[in-house]
């Protein structure tokens, strides 16, 4: 499988997990679920070039990155069904436990990265968080520490427009979250989350910088949360249908697939084959998951 096929498969699996996760939640088979719908392309672009020994600390909205790191769909669904621990071997797979306390994973990532540097390792740590989390004091502390001690960590802020019902424009008076990096003494960039190539380029540069011992970077991925904050949220109370409709028309996955077939040599027959394989994979996963859950009841 060549690179464009691998990227396509990763994006398709991320979207399919999201569809399955929502359906299972509505059926009562998983607990509260936070969709990544619309954000998958940026997430895959950021993490695609990481090495197996690198570490990712997610929040709770990056299942596609978990799948990319080798976490199985069944392990992720087991977590969403009420597990109070990470069902996967997070150290071996380089994908940390989901973090519900907002922003706390940035401290975990900085600590992990700093420890790795003290051991003389060349590993890089990447941490995902949202624009809402960027307002947490713990995020400031993590970035400040990482900047002072040149911890090899890449901070990835997914600015999806909303921190539950709070628009991102009210999260900071600065031009953007990426501007904060300057005060911490390391580079910050803003990229369009619908452009997987732009995200990859920014991530590759940040990872290379961290691996070379030059310290952290901050990448602000501009995207949009098409779905609700979680399945316990009603976004119609604070944003219009027209806004969401406009964003759906710019769906990052469809934009990526069109670009992949038109400009990057992905044949339509190969795309259809990958789509079928992913659907078949998740049909089997759902069947196994539901049967296992029923047996536990």
- Ranges with pLDDT <50 over ≥5 residues? none
For the biggest sheet, the summary is:
5 strands, parallel
Please report the number of helical segments. Answer: 12
- Gyration radius (Cα, Å) is 18 Å
Q: What is the CATH first-level class name?
A: Alpha Beta
How does the overall form come out from the CA principal axes? Answer: globular
Percent range for helical residues?
40-55%
Overall structural class, as computed from helix and strand content, comes to: alpha/beta
Annotated CATH topology: Rossmann fold
How many domains in all? 1
* CATH second-level architecture: 3-Layer(aba) Sandwich
Strand content: 5-15%
Per DSSP E runs of 2 or more residues, the count of β-strands stands at 7
**What string, H for helix and E for strand, traces the elements in order?**
HHEHHHHEHEEEHEHEHHH
Order of strands across the main sheet: 1-2-3-7-6
The residue-averaged pLDDT reads: 95
CA-CA gap between termini: 41 Å
């Amino acid at each position: 499988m060549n690179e464009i096929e691998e990227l396509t498969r990763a994006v398709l699996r991320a979207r399919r997990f999201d569809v399955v996760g929502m359906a299972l939640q509505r059926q009562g088979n998983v607990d509260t679920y936070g969709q990544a719908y619309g954000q998958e392309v940026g997430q895959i672009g950021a993490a695609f070039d990481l090495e197996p020994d690198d570490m990712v600390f997610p929040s709770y909205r990056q299942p596609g990155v978990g799948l990319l790191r080798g976490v199985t769909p069944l392990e992720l669904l087991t977590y969403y069904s009420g597990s109070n621990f990470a069902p996967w071997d997070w150290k071996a797979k380089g994908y940390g436990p989901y973090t519900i306390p907002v922003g706390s994973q940035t401290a975990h990532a900085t600590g992990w990265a700093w420890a790795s540097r003290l051991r003389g390792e060349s590993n890089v740590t990447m941490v995902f968080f949202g624009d809402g989390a960027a307002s947490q004091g713990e995020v400031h502390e993590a970035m400040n520490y990482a900047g002072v001690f040149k911890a090899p960590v890449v901070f990835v802020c997914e600015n999806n427009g909303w921190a539950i019902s709070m628009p991102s424009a009210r999260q900071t008076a600065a031009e953007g979250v990426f501007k904060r990096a300057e005060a911490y003494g390391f580079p910050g960039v803003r990229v369009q989350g619908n452009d997987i190539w732009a995200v990859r380029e920014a991530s590759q540069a940040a990872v290379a910088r961290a691996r070379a011992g030059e310290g952290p970077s901050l990448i602000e991925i501009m995207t949009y949360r098409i779905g609700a904050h979680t399945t316990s949220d009603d976004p119609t109370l604070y944003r219009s249908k027209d806004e969401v409709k406009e964003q759906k028309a710019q769906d990052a996955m469809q934009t990526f697939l069109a670009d992949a077939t038109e400009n990057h040599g992905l044949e339509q027959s190969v795309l259809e084959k990958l789509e079928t394989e992913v659907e078949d994979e998740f049909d089997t996963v759902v069947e196994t998951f539901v049967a296992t859950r029923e047996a536990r009841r």
